[in-house]
Design brief:
The structure holds three protein chains of three kinds.
Chain A (H helix, E strand, L loop, with lengths): L32 E4 L6 H10 L4 H16 L23 E3 L12 H10 L3 H7 L8 H14 L3 E4 H7 L1 H7 L10 H9 L4 E5 L9 E2 H4 L10 E6 L4 E7 L10 E2 L2 E6 L4 E8 L6 E10 L4 E8 L4 E4 L2 E4 L5 E10 L4 E10 L5 E10 L4 E10 L7 E10 L5 E11 L4 E10 L2 H8 L5 H17 L4 H15 L5
Parallel strand pairs in A: 4-6, 5-7, 6-9, 7-10, 8-11, 9-11, 10-12, 11-13, 11-14, 12-15, 13-16, 14-16, 15-17, 16-18, 17-19, 18-20, 19-21
Antiparallel strand pairs in A: 1-2, 3-4
Helix pairs in contact in A: 1-2, 2-8, 10-11, 11-12
Chain B lengths: L2 E11 L2 E12 L3 E5 L6 H9 L5 E9 L2 E2 L5 H6 L2 E4 L6 E5 H11 L9 H14 L10 E2 L5 H15 L3 E5 L7 H15 L4 E6 L4 H4 L4 E6 L2 E6 L1 H10 L1 H12 L1
Parallel strand pairs in B: 3-10, 3-11, 6-9, 9-10
Antiparallel strand pairs in B: 1-2, 1-4, 4-5, 7-8, 11-12
Chain C lengths: L14 H10 L5 H16 L44 E6 L2 E7 L4 H4 L3 E4 H7 L1 H7 L10 H10 L4 E5 L9 E7 L5 E2 L2 E6 L4 E10 L7 E10 L4 E9 L5 E10 L4 E8 L4 E10 L5 E10 L4 E10 L5 E10 L4 E10 L7 E10 L5 E10 L5 E10 L2 H9 L4 H17 L5 H16 L1
Parallel strand pairs in C: 1-5, 4-7, 5-8, 6-9, 7-9, 8-10, 9-11, 10-12, 11-13, 12-14, 13-15, 14-16, 15-17, 16-18, 17-19, 18-20
Antiparallel strand pairs in C: 1-2, 3-4
Helix pairs in contact in C: 2-6, 4-5, 7-8
Classes of the chains: A alpha/beta, B alpha/beta, C alpha/beta.
Chain lengths: ~475, ~250, ~450
Amino acid sequence: MKPPTEIETAETVENPVVGIDQTAGNFSYKVDYAFDAGTGLNEDTVRYISTVKKEAPWILEFRLKALKTFFEKPMPTHWATKDLENINFDKIRYYLSQGQKPKRTWDEVPDDIKKTFERLGIPEQERKFLAGVEAQFDSEAAYSNIKDIVAKQGVIFVNSTEGLREHPEIFKKFFGKVIPTGDNKFSALNSAVFSGGSFIYVPPGVKVAQPLQAYFRINAENFGQFERTLIIADEGSEVVYMEGCTAPKFTTSTLHSAVVELVALKGAKIQYITVQNWANNVFNLVTKRGVAHENAEIKWIDCNIGSRLTMKYPGVVLKGEGARGEVLSIALANDGQHQDTGAKMIHAANNTTSNIIAKSISVGQGRSTYRGVVHIPKHLKGCKNNTECDALLINSNSRTDTYPAITVRGDRNATQHEASVSKVSEDMIFYMQQRGLTEAQAMSLAVNGFINDLARQFPMEYSVELKRLIDLEMEGSVG
Amino acid sequence: MSKLEINDLRISIGEKPIVKGLNLTIKQGEVHAIMGPNGTGKSTLAKAIAGHPDYTITGGDVLLDGKSILTMAPDERARAGLFLAFQYPSEIPGVSIANFLRAAVQARMTEGEELDASGYYKRLYSKMDLLKIDRKFTSRSVNEGFSGGEKKRCEILQMAMLEPKIAVMDETDSGLDIDALRIVADGVNTLRSGPLGIMLITHYQRLLDYIVPDFVHVMYDGRIVKSGDKTLALELEAKGYDWVKQELVAANA
Amino acid sequence: MSSVSTTSITGSFTREVFNAHLERVKHLPAWWLDRKRAAYERFVALPMPKRTNEGWRFSNLSTLTLDGFRLEPTIPNVLSAPPLSNVAAASLTFVNNALAVRTATAADILSQHGIVFDNLQTALLQHGDLIKAHLLAQPSKLGSDKFAALHEAFLEDGAFVYVPKGIEASLPVSVFHHASGPGSAVFPHTLVIAESNSKITVADFFRSKKGEDAHFACGGNDLYAGHGAQVTYVAMQDWSRESLSFQFNAIVARRDAKVLSLNLHAGARQARHESFSQLQAPGAHSEMLALTVAQGTQEFDQRTLQIHQAPNTSSNLLYKNALLDQAKTIFSGLIVVDPDAQKTDAYQSNRNLMLSDEAEANSLPGLEIRANDVRCTHGATSARIDAEQEFYLKARGISATQAQELLVFGFFEEVLGKIENEQLHDQLTTIIRAKFKQ
């Protein structure tokens, strides 16, 4: 398996977010990779990955079984978009690892990229990292810092490779249990070739004060395309985890298929925040699920702005009495994008509550889809669900679909689902214009107002960047 | 001294002519009341001057400080110093009054100039106190869930914060009880002392007891048919709009 | 669960049975017979629904069997008077697919104004062109293609209502479909064509002979409302508790037309109802209402589609289900707004009242919106009776079952209240009340 000198970019589309044409020759990586599994997927690929990582035999077995399942399962195009058929599994590289720093200078980075970072307010150091000029942006330092602080509390915060190696007893107990390999075709794929992602364990009663960020932990395995994250919050503990960033992520791969498993034991609280802004050629197919035990709480805060196609339905299995699950989702779909997101709430104990708030914005020819499942089975009592999904259509050719499915059994549970579709009213825009705001400024205020309730739940730095990012996306859509 | 000149203005909604040749000049410091029966074009006039897309100007001109505003976008007209207090103010969910007004104030500043946050809030609170609007309203979404009176007071608050040259007030008194009316009128009267010209559109004479006009104009069938001072309003109140119609008919006979 | 073969299934509706049916209707126009033959071929070729069919999600497919039915030729000689016969302008009664009784309260008042209210077989011969244009003219979009084809193939007779331009019928017309005999299969159809600015109310009853066991009903109904027409259609399904029922409603509303359709579901062990509204021209409005009382182990499967094809159209769907015992309901409703249908107002609401510990309600409200200047909302709620309200009634001395009935009627009133015709309203109430006595 020869390391390449240039990265293959699959057919790419102009990225309207930053106006960057990734097919343009002046922006390509010239990197020497230490490890490269080549293109295409077969048993050898999987063995290569396992060998490079020096994994225990049980993990290799797990991977090989998963590979088999992946090949057996059909594409779910009977309900999902047919665009999935455009994924060419043979052309994808399943494992790449950098051994050396990339050879480019800040001068070589196109001006519009530099401008985007500026407008998004991305700090100086991060910019260089994101533009591929540096292998990390001080993440090691920031990461070590956090590690020290939380290590004192007994918190484990490492990448999944290390987690598997150093803490197999904890890992094995929960790994693959929340999301079994055969859950869907893409969880099977991930289970075969996973690499990167976080492993976090919070001991009983520990409340982690600072949010843990994936950012800090990114090291040699950049742009983890098959990340596998497992977070375990032991009884009474609390942790907030953030992944992604508002800056557009240029990836070497067109397929990003992650699996995130969360376990909140009795009385524990996990908050998982994602801001996704993959470049417009990426298929982002993610399986995320949490299990909440007695009186535990799992909250997914999900923001999807990038990618060509995102399919992601964060879910919570409310396993213990009094458990609580929440999904807050913001999706923005622009030209050439399809955000197919939603939530799954499975009630499996009495007095559990679930809450879903999904807001989507479709701009230009963007398409946003909401899919939800709420399931409350027989003989449960005191369960409640509340779902609200609202879609805002900006242009006349924008599109939105909503497909929730709610099943309730018994007379001691209650569900409520409301959905609405609207556009920004002309009267509202005129009212704001009369106060001196340009049409674009008015539109921006209106759109931010639409998602305000949700945006407020993001940590401060994110919500500011989020607002700027949405403004950027909206530019040119008005007038 | 700023002035708004309306010269032989003609406005249509689609194919239908509503305003059929209106002439009026409003100078800073003057309050002009426009009265008339329903459907005579008062609101049309107000919204069209502000640049609402539903209305088509088919003739005439509107000049602010000698410059025609008809080719300007609504926000340009606003930044040039024109303010419209809406009859039915829009709700803007998720956008707080504080943020909205800050954006509007910022829009009038020159590029690069930063808004002094503490100064802004000081001003905002003092105006809110004046208009008896609870300071907590700053974090509420603009007009969302507001009563009629609260909405109108919010309009006046905006007017106070944005310091326009000419304000067009479209039936500000509609839906207000006597207490709300008094508060709104007090707010407007304090602004009167500054360099502000007001076009006060009203159906009822009652508001004019509180905001005493310098000039009263009666609009009928898309034109101003009679002008006078504040006593004209009282005469109208006593005799009703039919009196004006009859006078017109007699004049044209 | 019985195995479902991937090849076609005809059950009791074999080619021999079909040919026998064709013999009976051979006097009807050739074009119609050709259509029926083509429909039968489609029926044979199409497979039974599978678990992976989105249009059958949550349905119980193992009990969907076409075996054990027959086309019963005999007509019982004594029938009770059809419902509403004392207030309807006219009514038609069909028993086992054949026209049995025709009554008119006000003799000839209908034909005086040019209104045609006749059985389909007569109409096929006299108004062939009209029927050709509208009978089963709309596509089957909700998943029951196979059964829609079965209906067309075996449709023997039904009601035809035609109202000319500008005529407003002050009295309703009623149709009564009756099934009798063990395993009897009926294929009712009501076709309503309302020309511009006309007005008509049509009531459809479906009933099995009392005390009888399993019947098979596969009925269709086409409503066409021309420019400015107003059509009210009320259907009451009260087949025997062992029956299997399919019902397909297709509604077309032209410019400024207003259609109100209300379906009451009470009978059958398993009933599938599909209702499809097309808002084709500006000003069109379709009000889609349904009330269901699900008891025992009944399963009511309701699938709807509101398609907005022109600007300034509106639709409003309100489906209310009361669930008792171990009953199950499925509601799947989709609102589709085409790119040109700006200024559409479309609403959809599914409310489920859970009255027992083991009942199951499934809701799949859906939206596919392609125009942006629209107002579309959908909502689905499932809850039990308000405890406070229940206590209040009991505190006034009302028994628990009585209180439940009162509150259920309160729950249904939002829909019942939309029926202006008092007698119709009463008829609906009677059927609902009878279910609670069971």
